[in-house]
Every structure is written in structure tokens, then in C-alpha cells.
Amino acid sequence: MLLTNSAAWIPEEQAQLVVGQAPWPKVGDDDLIISTHAVAVNPVDWKIQSWGGFGVEYPYVLGEDVAGVVVEVGANFKHKFKTGQRVIGHAVGLAHGHAYGAFQKYPLLRGSLTAVVPDEIPLSEAVVLPLSISTAAAGLYTKIGLNLRSPREDTSSLADKKPTLLVWGGSSSVGSSVIQLAVASGYTVATTASLANFDYVRKLGATLVADYHEPDVTTKVIGFLSDTNIAGAYDAIGSEITVRQNAAVLHALGGGKIASVGKAPEVPHKDVEIVRISSGIIDNQEPNVAKEIWGEYVPAALVSGQLVPEPKPLVTGHGLSDVQDGLDKQKEGVSASKIVIELHPKKAVPATQPRCFAE
Questions:
Q1: Which of 26-30, 268-272, 332-336 shows the lowest mean pLDDT across its residues?
Q2: What positions does the domain Enoyl reductase (ER) occupy (predicted)?
Q3: Residue 204: what pLDDT?
């Protein structure tokens, strides 16, 4: 019996998405197949579409944030997942091919980048988390990144001696997860945000907040942190300007390391190190971090409420045909919210002559 799948394909470089049939995925030992209930849109999705590059082989299925119900489990994860469980996962098509892209009804997920979602959290809310969790973890906990203490370690002895992490862009999707993970790991968080999002980042756990619109924001942040033990900086924006602002802060405080999601330009400070990080680090270079964060912390923290799905979803559609509009809206810009498209999958049905867009 053959089962049908469909996807929102990008057929060639810089093309609009086209909904068409897709191969039924073949589950590997380290994989899961899920039935998609919701996907979220990230800047990388429209950047791949608009700019090309990224090492993509076409036709391709975009998407990194997905939530749904487990359909099949590979041999190495049968102890951890069961069919019918509600999960979120970081879809890693850029590393493993279009079968792992999120924007399809039945994607493959890496078991190491998947977590069970408690029943009280709607999947359309939980879906905002995956890519931001992986990207946050890559910058915070890997040896390539800041190599900070993990949220699974005991922090009770720190009391009032908590080191401070600077997070530039705390209201962004990645910044929201960085704040939550850092606080869970026992760090005090200082962050930047627009004035309208001060309450938002404080709710996530930030203690000190500066308005990045202020022309003297760098000076203000230095003042905030002058008497603190600085653990480093996480630049969740990654522009050349923000990296240089972070570097100026760390230099004034005696130096340190910046983990940036984007640019890693040269700066005139020999006491400041800048590393560009990506979510893929925890998938292919330091899988121990994925095991600790995705395998242990995320499912437990979702149950306890220590990790909450933020930013809030902005649902803009209800099917694969609405994904392109979601990409367009994300490209226009959103603040303290994340574009989400809900899917309402039906039970897979037999097909005597399936047509595959990729063939």
C-alpha cells in the first residue's frame, strides 16, 4: 500500500512555492515521521527563496519549525517516542535533504531534535520554538559558542553571584529562547529591545533592558553591566552594526566572546572574540548538546512551565497553499510574534499511481 504526501516545493532558485505531491519519507534508524499540524516561518526561509544559495539542491522543501503527531519511529528512538505523541521538531532539510523540510504533510525529523509537547500546549503555539531552541543552544552551550553552564546543572550555589549574559535582540525569536535558556542555566540576562517590548523580555526573565533605538544604547549597556561578572554576549540579530555594538560593550568590560547568528566582522578590539554560530552545530558537530537540550531539558521544561512558547504565534493561513503568503509576511517584518500556518492533515490514503513533484 502506497501512502501520499504533499509539500510546498520551491522548484528552482528564487521561485515561488508550488504545492505538489512529494515522496513518502523512508524512516531511518535515527528518524521519525510526523503528520504535520502546524509550521512556523523563519527569516532563513524567505532568504533562501529570495537570495538563492545556501547549498540548496532543487526542487526543495523549505521550513525548519514543525509540530505534529508521530506516525513512525526509527529503531534508535523507539524507547523515547511512540506513534500518536504530539511533538515539535527542528526540521533540518538544509543538512539532510528535502524529505526533512518542514513545509510538507509528512516530514522526517531527527529524533535528537524532537521533543514531546504536553497536551495543554497547542501545537500552533509550540511550533514557534524549534529552530530558536537549536540556534540558542548552539550559541550558549557548544565549545564553538560560549560554552556556558547547561540548564541541567545545579545552580543553587550561585545565589547572588550569578554571571550576566548580554543578549542583543531579546524580543526576536532566537533572542526569546536565548533568554529563557540562559535564565534556566543560572545566568542574569541583560538585553536590548524596543521600548514596546520591554515587558515582553522581562516576562521571559531578562533583568536589565535597554532600548536599542537609543543613540547611546552602547553606553547605557556598559553602565548597566559595569559592576557585573560578564559571561559573554549573544547577538541574536547578527548585523555588522549589532556585532560592533556588542564588541564595544565587552571591550569596555575587559573583553570576552560574542556568539553571533550572522556577521563576524573584524573589530578593533583584540580582547573580543566573535564566532558565527548556526543551529546545525548541535546536529552534526556537537550532538551531545542536542541530547542534553532537546532530549532532556526541553520536554521537562515544557511540562514544568520553565520553557514557554514565545514569541506568540501569528496564524496567517491554514494549509500548504498559504505558506508562500507566510514567507512574504515574514519578509515584511514582524515584532515579538512568529508567522504560523496551521495544517489539518487527514489520514493518509492509498494511491495506486502517486505522482512525485521531485521526480
A1: 332-336
A2: 14-341
A3: 97
Q: Which pLDDT value is given to residue 158?
A: 61
Per-residue pLDDT of 114-143, as tens digits, reads 999 999 999 999 999 999 999 999 999 999
| Mean pLDDT, rounded, for 274-300 | 95
Largest CA distance in the chain: 70
pLDDT digits (tens, 9 = 90+) for 36-84: 999 999 999 999 999 988 888 999 999 999 999 999 999 999 999 999 9
Listed by start position, the domains of the chain span 5-129+309-342, 134-281
Fold identical between 5-129+309-342 and 134-281? no
CATH architecture of 5-129+309-342: Alpha-Beta Complex (3.90)
pTM of the complete model: 0.92
| CATH superfamily, domain at 134-281 | NAD(P)-binding Rossmann-like Domain (3.40.50.720)
